[in-house]
Amino acid sequence: MVSPVAKKAGEETIGLVIAGGGARGAYEAGALSVLLPYLEERGERPTVLVGTSVGAMTATYLASVAHLGAPEAVAGLLERWGEVSKAGVIRPIVRRQAPETLIRFAGEFLGIPGVHLPGLLDPTPLTATLDEWIDWRAIRRNVRSGALDAIAVVATAVSSARSTVFVDGRTDEELFGSYGIDYVPVRLGSDHVRASGAIPAFFPAVWVDSPGEARGWYYDGGTRLNTPIKPILDLDADRLVLLATDSIERTRVDPRSQAGRRTPDFADGALEFLQATLIDPLMHDVRMIGKINLLAVDGGLSPTAVAYQEDRGKRPYRPIPFMFVAPDSRGALGDLAAEVFRKRYGGIRGLLSPDFTVLTRLLGGQGASHGELLSYLFFEHDFIEGLIEMGAEDARSWLERVDGPEAPWYLKPVDQLLGGSH
């Protein structure tokens, strides 16, 4: 666990959780453009930020501008997302990467010593992009000044396969072990954020030169903890703003509709993997918050359960008011990616941008899973703009949907708000 930081009487800490999702991070930026100015007007701007993968990139940017007003901060965020391009994330595929990748793959296949393929894509440009986005020294200034309580990013240690949370704003004495999670106090830098977004197989692992046992190779934090709800609670947040890039709606398929369909291919299998690692844990965690809230509010927790928490040095179970912004329907962002791809790069037009054509072939061609997989790596202007608009609209929808004395915060199981069909 993480030891609680001293607070003034009646003071509450607002935590912001930003999930991973590659290019889908533009959706979260759109949601933040609505939520952060609204919360600041209420005196509830988040001061504890935790992100995974692209969520780590957005979280560290927000940490670097925590001294600015929310409207100015989100304007800068949208400006940066508006400038995002494939060239700022990965090297050219056809002109640069393809020949080298084929040679390395052949060398590894043939067992040539010293030749290996660290990943299908080369994210070298991302280092410069991060340094353009983020003033790393400003993060330290904001922590020292109190404009920011803590900022953390999640990665997965290759050596242990455990989630590692790199935390700026806490000392070693304030951080303890937690089941399945290691907390490491650091001064956040580019390597921590790049490690958080190093998608296995697609991107190479990133070396992080942290002190002690945390020094080593890391992959994307989303492989274990894509929506880091537990870390934000361990960092003593009292209210949560949760952002995700897919719906927690359960997909229901009539078995009869599967008759006569083609055999599932690589893209279908990859999508199943993504849903299992990114969406299913989110569904469980968001629903669990609602259930614990019901117990805590109604006094349903037994004295034994409360005493158990206190004996372990933890705060007793308590209600956690939350806001949750995500697409209403499963596959909405993938549908947008497929639509933009057809309009901009379908048919002969794809020859004008061979990198996107190659990328889409790697991700399943034109099958049903194509749009979903493509949406994670489709750093294309029209798609990014569409995501920002969707995120902003869904954030406004949350604010309009929640009513009652706690609004815009919610305490009940989220299914009750979303119509009970999720």
How would you sum up this structure, described in words?
It is a single chain. The protein has 422 residues and is α/β, with parallel strands linked by helices. Helix content is 46%, strand content 11%. It contains 16 helices and 9 strands. The chain has helices at 25-41, 54-64, 70-82, 93-110, 125-133, 136-145, 190-196, 222-225, 229-234, 266-298, 303-311, 332-345, 354-362, 370-377, 381-401, 414-417, and strands at 14-18, 48-52, 150-157, 163-168, 181-185, 206-208, 216-220, 239-243, 322-325. Strands 1, 2, 3, 4, 5, 6, 7, 8 and 9 form a 9-stranded mixed beta sheet that branches. Helix 1 (25-41) links the parallel strand 1 and strand 2. The two termini are 31 Å apart.
SS elements, strand count = 9
Please provide the ordered H/E string of secondary-structure elements.
EHEHHHHHEEEHEEHHEHHEHHHHH
What's the helix count?
A: 16
Q: Sheet with the most strands?
A: 9 strands, mixed
